[in-house]
Automatic annotation (TrEMBL):
Any GO MF annotation of the entry: L-aspartate:2-oxoglutarate aminotransferase activity
Keywords recorded for this protein, A-Z: Aminotransferase, Pyridoxal phosphate, Pyruvate, Transferase
All residue ranges annotated as the Aminotransferase class I/classII large domain in the record: 34-381
Similarity comment text for this entry: Belongs to the class-I pyridoxal-phosphate-dependent aminotransferase family.
Classification lineage: Bacteria, Pseudomonadati, Pseudomonadota, Alphaproteobacteria, Rhodobacterales
Organism (species): Marivita hallyeonensis
Protein name: aspartate transaminase
Catalysed reaction equations from the record: L-aspartate + 2-oxoglutarate = oxaloacetate + L-glutamate
Length: 392
């Protein structure tokens, strides 16, 4: 029997992909257990019915054949207009490639920025798929550590120490898993290092509509960055269209032209009726705040619950749909705490170690269930942590 390729068998770096608790929780649910799942960033509301009607009308109307590989022109124009309005950087359809979701956009961006064997930097903690997507593009991930005490923001000295020989840097703001929103001075520092080291910057901005403190700034808008930045966007988080798989890469025209060639030989584009639904959604801006509102509300619930105790500490959640909790006072690692919580309370959270080493001793809680369930789960989590601490 022929062997599988080295590329495919080493996507996870020879270890776990960090999703063990999630898979165990799902198995418990399938077995009939009542588990409160606070693991992945899946909205508890579904795609708005008006978007689904637009999708249905497009499909019934015949937009079910091959769509333009770069993306339907009207959608590319709408994405370009959105990016121009948000960032202040003039953007046209020639700067836009429509992809099957943000994950495919991440892969495409790394294929454009990295040759086989190149090093790409990722800020730790990172979204769990980042190392794998880097490896899938033939590159080698190198983590840049951060600290909870400084809000998980990258430090210049650490970034410069890791940058030697690197081809690209991947950042994510608003950040999953930490909830950090990178301030201007951090982004200016990142831009300076990227320019000095002649790297590409890949900026994952899929949570740009979920900012609770501060303001989102796309690094593409900083001086000298438009020609070396690839921006990742998606309809998944902003419009609760996770299953529709519609995202994009924004970049220089020559990079997008090359990525169209990649799409022609891999995904061959996104279904036209999906793109028409995305276009409808972008033309109805009231939908974005409606999708974001529950997470802002639950952020306040989390602050109220956590204020009533001193053991479990929250990293300030400035954006996105998560809150990162420091559970080191229990004496357990994040992974051990998450597994114990699942066994004792039937509450599933993601270990901080799923996202690298910098968030060890933390757990990420997705704010993705009904308000009352969310508050109850957090209260139970805090009580459970207190019991563990007493036993230390």
């Amino acid at each position: 029997m022929p062997t599988l390729s080295h590329r495919i068998t080493t996507l996870n770096g020879g270890g776990s992909d960090g999703w063990d608790v999630f898979y165990r929780a799902r198995a418990m649910v399938e077995a009939g257990d009542d588990v409160i799942e606070l693991t992945i960033g899946e909205h508890d509301i579904r795609t708005d019915p008006s978007i689904l009607r637009a999708m249905y009308d497009s499909a019934v109307g015949g937009h079910t054949g091959y769509a333009s590989v770069p993306g339907v022109s009207a959608l590319r124009d709408a994405v370009a207009a959105r990016v121009t309005a948000q960032s202040g950087v003039a953007t046209t359809r020639e700067n836009v490639l429509i992809t099957p979701g943000g994950q495919a956009a991440l892969f495409a961006a790394h294929m454009a920025a990295c040759s086989p064997g190149d090093t790409t930097l990722i800020v730790d903690p990172f979204y769990a798929t980042y190392p794998g997507v880097v490896r899938s593009a033939g590159a080698v991930p190198r983590a840049v550590p951060t600290e909870a005490e400084t809000g998980f923001l990258p430090d210049r000295a650490d970034l410069e120490a890791a940058a030697n020989g690197a081809a690209s840097l991947l950042i994510n703001t608003p950040n999953n898993p930490t909830g950090a929103v990178y301030p201007r001075d951090t982004l200016e520092m990142i831009a300076d290092v990227v320019k000095t080291c002649d790297m590409w910057l890949i900026s994952d901005e899929v949570y740009d509509t979920q900012v609770w403190d501060g303001a989102h700034l796309s690094p593409r808008a900083l001086p000298g960055m438009v020609e070396r930045t690839l921006v990742i966007g998606s309809m998944s988080k902003s419009h609760a269209m996770t299953g529709s798989r519609c995202g994009w890469v924004i970049g220089p025209e020559d990079a997008i032209s090359a990525l169209v060639d990649l799409a022609t030989n891999t995904t061959y584009g996104v279904p036209g009726f999906i793109q028409d639904a995305a276009l409808f959604a972008l033309r109805n801006p009231i939908l974005e705040p409606e999708v974001a509102a529950p997470f802002l509300r639950r952020r306040e619930i989390a602050a109220r619950v956590l204020k009533g105790q001193q053991l479990v500490q929250a990293v300030p959640a400035q954006g996105a749909m998560y809150v990162m909790l420091d559970v080191r006072a229990t004496g357990l690692s994040g992974e051990a705490f998450a597994n114990a919580l699942l066994d004792a309370e039937y509450i599933a959270v993601m270990p901080g170690e799923s996202f690298g080493t910098s968030a060890a001793g933390h757990v990420r809680v997705a704010m993705t269930v009904d308000d009352a369930w969310f508050e109850d789960a957090l209260q139970r989590l805090c009580r459970f942590a207190a019991l563990l601490a007493e036993a230390v």
